Write a sequence for this structure.
């Protein structure tokens, strides 16, 4: 035990004397959260739209009024005929056109169904998607008001996403993702680098020719990073609560436990990387290419998994980050309890056990 | 026997690093492995310190087999790799303390063993190891390798890149450690250090050329060596090489070490020959054989 404590003490010296790494370690979460929270945003404000109203009745007027009253849209102009739509898009200012069908109000009352066409400028697909979501939300709202007195109680909202993030705040989407990335980066990359550094500097040779057991070396390496990762997770959650006013719906305790589970699985991955790389650079490259890219691209953090081609969807299943993102989105945004995420948790536990088993098996007690 | 090596061979992909190496080191002996870079010294050290597994042959250290009983060996040996392998971002004292802890001991417990060495680096104990000079680094590394009172000490080229004064001090320390009953296996590319060992093994290209005491090795040298000097070193070497009776010609500091094929060699003949080659200020005198001469002769 004394040996183990001595080893951990040494690791703390390494971490706290390397000012640059320390800065990355604690500066990065803050910078990333700020970046994703403020700069990279999917939100829209005062988007110019045009209206083509074939009906011009009470209902269309009411809808147009609601749309223009929202802060998201401002009505740039009213157009009279279909052929204007293309010319108006070509000018580039207007991002969307709402096209009400003829006899909109009449149809709504008679058939209980009326059609409105939302034409968006999809040169920027994200914005286009968001605009259509926003319009849908406003329409749904109006529909709900209409149905107020009617007995048909059912109302299906067009997009589930909005249920949990009615204001469509993108920072709410990014926080779980950023947290995943940071934990992955700190845990996996830092451990793999710190183990390969011992190899590179030749100190591994001395550590091997000592009574230290492989288990003690690995746990000693991992232990400080568990601690640092937890601090990072806390910082991220605090930032998102206090700066972005993000509500954490579920249990903080459950969130903490799941985070620790994910941290351990990332650390195990880090050890695994260190067993196959001989230099710090290789370890860093493998961590970046092999972990960061899949985490960013395939975990559902930025791009929804459901819209990926099938092969990529299948690959996304083996990425621990995907499951962790599902779990923390569930806890943070939906406030679900353990009974809703036990499956994902189990998968993560299984992966962790697998990685630890593999890295203990691969850990070399000799030089080659 | 403290170390036994029998018939050890080791190859890396295409290179035969060690070929059928056998030798023994007695308890309390200071044994030197003398050979140039790439001779296989480090590979042999790594096999004996259980870091590598030999392709062939067996070896024991303090009675334990290097493959099957590697754990016992790791408990009882001190190893100082050729490359400086301490934590550069830790101070002198922290390094020492770390190595003491992982071997389950304390600095105080074995202080008497490292005292002579440690007092020399003690003034710098709060300095980061990475900021020490070459000689200081080696002294610290030796302290760290000694802190758990090992039975056998493996030192892989401990004086490479160290200034002559520190080198001398370092070897004096090794002598003192030897008196405390520690078996020492040391490798070096410096032939002058070989004379300080009890016994040496000359090693080249993975083969042992000769094993004996330094004196015996020098005595085995079959020829009388002459120091030759002239006004033009380059001209001298080419002339000597061209001389029909020349056996060996090696530059050695400001002299050239020359041996002749004939048993009845007379320096006057050589003097006349060299003068005919337009060399002047010629000196020719008998000299003592060194380990280096032996090595060059064996490695021929």
């Amino acid at each position: 035990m004394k040996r183990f404590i001595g080893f951990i003490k040494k690791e703390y010296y390494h971490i706290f004397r390397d000012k640059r790494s320390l800065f990355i370690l604690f500066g990065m979460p803050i910078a990333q959260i700020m970046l994703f929270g403020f700069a990279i945003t999917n939100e829209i404000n005062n988007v110019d739209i045009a209206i083509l109203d074939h009906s011009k009745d009470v209902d269309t007027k009411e809808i147009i009024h609601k749309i223009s009253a929202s802060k998201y849209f401002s009505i740039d102009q009213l157009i009279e005929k279909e052929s204007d739509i293309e010319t108006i898009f070509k000018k580039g200012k207007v991002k969307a056109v709402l096209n009400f069908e003829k006899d909109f109000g009449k149809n709504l009352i008679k058939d209980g169904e009326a059609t409105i066409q939302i034409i968006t400028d999809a040169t920027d697909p994200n914005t286009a998607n968001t605009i259509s979501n926003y319009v849908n939300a406003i329409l749904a709202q109006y529909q709900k008001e209409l149905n107020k007195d009617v007995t048909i109680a059912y109302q299906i909202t067009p997009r589930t996403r909005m249920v949990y993030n009615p204001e469509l705040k993108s920072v709410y989407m990014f926080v779980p993702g950023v947290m995943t990335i940071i934990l992955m980066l700190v845990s996996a990359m830092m451990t793999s680098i710190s183990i390969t550094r011992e190899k590179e500097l030749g100190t591994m040779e001395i550590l091997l020719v000592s009574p230290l057991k492989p288990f003690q070396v690995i746990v000693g390496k991992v232990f400080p990073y568990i601690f640092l990762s937890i601090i990072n997770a806390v910082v991220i959650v605090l930032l998102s609560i206090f700066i972005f006013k993000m509500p954490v719906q579920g249990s903080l305790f459950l969130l903490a436990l799941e985070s620790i589970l994910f941290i351990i699985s990332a650390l195990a991955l880090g050890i695994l990387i260190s067993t196959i790389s001989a230099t710090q650079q290789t370890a860093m490259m493998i961590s970046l290419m092999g972990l960061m890219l899949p985490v960013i691209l395939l975990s559902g953090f930025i791009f929804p998994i459901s819209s990926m081609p099938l092969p990529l969807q299948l690959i996304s299943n083996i990425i621990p980050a995907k499951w962790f993102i599902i779990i923390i989105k569930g806890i943070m945004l939906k406030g679900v309890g353990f009974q809703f995420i036990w499956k994902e948790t189990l998968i993560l536990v299984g992966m962790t056990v697998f990685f630890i088993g593999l890295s203990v098996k691969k850990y070399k007690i000799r030089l080659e | 026997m403290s170390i036994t090596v029998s018939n050890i061979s080791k190859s890396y992909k295409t290179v035969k690093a060690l070929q059928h190496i056998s030798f023994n080191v007695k308890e309390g002996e200071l044994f030197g492995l003398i050979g140039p870079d790439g001779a296989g010294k480090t590979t042999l050290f790594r096999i004996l310190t259980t870091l590598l597994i030999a392709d062939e042959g067996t070896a024991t250290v303090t009675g334990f087999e290097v493959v099957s009983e590697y754990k016992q060996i790791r408990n009882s040996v001190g190893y100082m790799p050729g490359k400086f392998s301490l934590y550069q971002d830790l101070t002198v004292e922290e390094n020492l303390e770390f190595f003491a802890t992982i071997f389950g001991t304390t600095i105080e417990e074995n202080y008497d063993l490292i005292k002579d060495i440690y007092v020399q680096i003690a003034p710098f104990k709060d300095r980061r190891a990475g900021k020490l000079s070459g000689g200081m680094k080696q002294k610290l590394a030796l302290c760290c390798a000694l802190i758990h009172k090992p039975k056998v000490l493996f030192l892989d080229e401990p004086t490479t890149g160290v200034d002559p004064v520190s080198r001398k001090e370092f070897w004096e320390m090794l002598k003192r450690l030897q008196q405390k009953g520690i078996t020492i296996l040391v490798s070096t590319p410096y032939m002058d250090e070989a004379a300080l060992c009890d016994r040496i093994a000359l090693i080249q290209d993975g083969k042992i050329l000769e094993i004996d005491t330094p004196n015996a090795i020098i005595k085995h040298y079959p020829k009388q060596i002459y120091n030759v000097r002239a006004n033009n070193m380059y001209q001298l070497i080419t002339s000597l090489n061209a001389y029909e009776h020349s056996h060996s010609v090696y530059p050695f500091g400001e002299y050239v070490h020359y041996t002749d094929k004939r048993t009845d060699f007379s320096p006057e003949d050589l003097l006349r020959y060299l003068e005919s080659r337009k060399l002047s200020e010629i000196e020719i005198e008998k000299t003592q054989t060194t380990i280096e001469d032996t090595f060059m002769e064996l490695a021929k």
Remarks:
- Chain B has a mean pLDDT of 90.
- The radius of gyration of chain B is 22 Å.
- Chain B has eleven helices and 14 strands.
- Chain B has two domains: 3-214, 225-299.
